[in-house]
Hints:
Blueprint: E1 2-5, H1 6-10, E2 16-22, H2 28-39, H3 45-56, E3 64-70, E4 74-79, E5 82-87, H4 89-94, H5 100-111, E6 115-121, E7 124-132, H6 139-148, E8 153-156, H7 161-171, E9 175-177
Parallel strand pairs: 1-8, 8-9
Antiparallel strand pairs: 2-7, 3-4, 4-5, 5-6, 6-7
Helix pairs in contact: 2-3, 5-7
Amino acid sequence: xxxxxxxxxxxxxxxxxxxxxxxxxxxxxxxxxxxxxxxxxxxxxxxxxxxxxxxxxxxxxxxxxxxxxxxxxxxxxxxxxxxxxxxxxxxxxxxxxxxxxxxxxxxxxxxxxxxxxxxxxxxxxxxxxxxxxxxxxxxxxxxxxxxxxxxxxxxxxxxxxxxxxxxxxxxxxxxxxxxx
Length: 180
């Protein structure tokens, strides 16, 4: 068996923000500005995608006054005096927050290969962000060549299961381990 990481191996490793979905009470620009401010101190590739998207739209993402990550789940920050929570649906559940109003949209985006993170502002669900990392050219061909040599090719990723399965399908991998 050959085990491959997803990000930067099967994908280009340059995630880009593709979707912003709001709950309607906070304008899209404010949601992105606050999320980018919260993500400024993070070195995670998804954080970089959010910060770059805000810059590309000419939004000033203020430095966070506080910042704390929860490994594999998300982060808490204070940006411009506002409490910002960004992370997975599981993280929001752990924090006592509900996401069901956006769950169907999140599921659809994950099925398209996007990583989805929820955003809350001041203790209230504000929206979600969809982030895509394009499949690396030649990845499917490389997987096919490895399989032709008799190897079982497995994808391993810290990403969400639906996203992982969508990427695995695109490159011809039938076994993917997500959330690790």
